[in-house]
């Protein structure tokens, strides 16, 4: 078992510079309705991922597909602590973040099916979920690459607020990364910049203990407490229990509010576990069944479900209805994706440039933003095969 | 063992590395998941057991760091093999691999060489989307001081990798995830060493020269089959290394066919394909019946959707169209 499992029930544990003001977790309890919504959101992500795995086996989904099962509380708890206008950016394990942010399961599934109704019209795929209306600035495929982007998103909102509007920083960016991503140089450059420039960005390390088959202790120094990575850059940091949506929410609410108030970066060592393999082709030989079982007993969905029933907020029957409803919704989104058309060959040449010129036919909106499936007219010059057209 | 032993491309790569590691203790392998996981694509399967963790080295996801480290080790005379899980991930290590390795000998006035092999998967075709489908040959082959090798078959994978490991200069060795499972006859043991800069004629023909390397060689062979039925006879030349480039073999073929189509899976602008076409124009100006036609991947980022990606590739259909146009059969 990776030693960080021992700390799974660790309370919100912060680490700050000596001069920083004291900070206790904001523990205002959410309403019963909110709690039920979180449960439903987590169920939706899990069911969605189960169906993704099936669709992948059925060869409806191709390429790389990274499953979020086990980490649902992280996306749901973090998004709950954000404002809708706060930017979010993450890596390739991004379906959960997209759904938590409000992307429809239809758009998300269609994207993975490579169909026109996907969030990127089938051009991006599983690793690249983008949703402008929900301030989701993408899933990104290159490990660590989203981290400087996260700093940049925060830079832009700060610039807008403080320079253009002459106010104070109002938006906080959430930038998610994996524990393995901590070993990319770009991450360290981004943290230094964020510390230096007072950027309101929270780097949330989804510490699931592994990068592919490498446990954190084989790949990363100070794996027992990642907060030390941040202290070198003068960035405040905290350990948060990412297996518990309430803990995640309270911890993140506190941190995000502080980042907003002071326009400062934060770094979160978010303890969690991915139940499935790294991607669809990983037999998980590098860890034991016992370790997996131990983590699954602390399952975030089961935990909240039990708690709500114990508090009389939700009956067993209501919880079952909720799950049934969610399953139906996900089944419907698969059917929707399957019925969505494949992109026309012309789409190869759209969205390369904003403007139309030469063979490039400008840009077209995805259907989730009101775009149609009618493509701009296509000039059939194939640029990569020589054209015999005379230029003079 | 029989001379007709068939193994996969990935096994051929492993045999090359293992044989060279047995031969020379200075050779070692490092990269992500190469040891305990047996390689993300199982190329290094079993090598940890044979050579131990001092020579088969798992690294964190720190391409810039471990590529740079390996270059430092090579300056001391070691012979590292650096595995990039994908060449797409080498971009974060662009400075060490492009700015250090190929220039070290020159900058040091001949004092420090860099006997290193960088290897990994290159190219689109697995629906991996825009960031994971790089054909780095377009960009990287521009840099002097390196050798670049792109084998299309298991026997060449082994023979060229052995040569690469023994080479005293930095070698960029571009494999393809799409070909790792490809089976073919590969001689056992040490004898198979394929020199760089020697093309291989994959199919003889009289009407059109198809010049290519790496995975598109197979698209060319597919196209040649289809075109034969239309009465167009194609000669398929596999360049195997593009630095050095065996222009002589292509020229000899074009002098026979008078028609040349270059097939390159990198983007067209400033590519090895455009370089080859320019050289053919230079050497075969009076022999050509038509200008050199080129088939590349479409000049757009790699799309994810299956149908778009298939269209994007320099596939057999597009090669056939180019050959018909070049031979005035369109
Ligand atoms: C620069 C780069 N190197 C390697 C990879 C291949 N790769 C994809 S995900 C991954 C592991 C990342 O682990 P972690 O950051 O912990 O995130 P997790 O998958 O656990 O969410 C690797 C090595 C990549 N995408 N980019
Ligand atoms: Mg991880």
Helix content of chain A: 25-40%
CATH architecture of the largest domain in chain A: 3-Layer(aba) Sandwich
Shape of chain A: globular
CATH class of the largest domain in chain B: Alpha Beta
Pattern of helices and strands of chain B: EHEHEHEHHEHEHEEEEHEEHEHEHH
Provide a count of the helices of chain B. 12
Q: What is the residue-mean pLDDT of chain B, rounded to a whole number?
A: 97
On the 0-100 scale, what is the average pLDDT of chain A? 92
Structural class of chain A: alpha/beta
Provide a descriptive summary of the structure in words:
- The complex is a heterodimer of chains A (392) and B (330).
- Chain A is an alpha/beta fold.
- Chain A has 2 domains: 335 residues, Thiamin diphosphate (ThDP)-binding fold, Pyr/PP domains (Rossmann fold), CATH 3.40.50.970; 48 residues, no CATH class.
- Chain A is 39% helix and 11% strand.
- In chain A, the strands form 3 sheets. In chain A, strands 1-8-9-5-4-2-3 form a 7-stranded mixed β-sheet, sandwiched between helices. A two-stranded antiparallel ribbon of chain A has the order 6-7. In chain A, strands 10-11 form a two-stranded antiparallel sheet.
- The longest helix of chain A is centred in the N-terminal third of the chain and has 26 residues.
- Chain B is of the alpha/beta class and 330 residues long.
- In chain B, the strands form 3 sheets. Chain B has a 7-stranded mixed β-sheet with strand order 3-2-4-5-7-6-12, sandwiched between helices.
- The mean pLDDT of chain B is 97.
- The interface between A and B is large, with 49 and 48 residues.
- Bound molecules: thiamine diphosphate and magnesium ion.
- Thiamine diphosphate (TPP) sits at the interface of chains A and B.
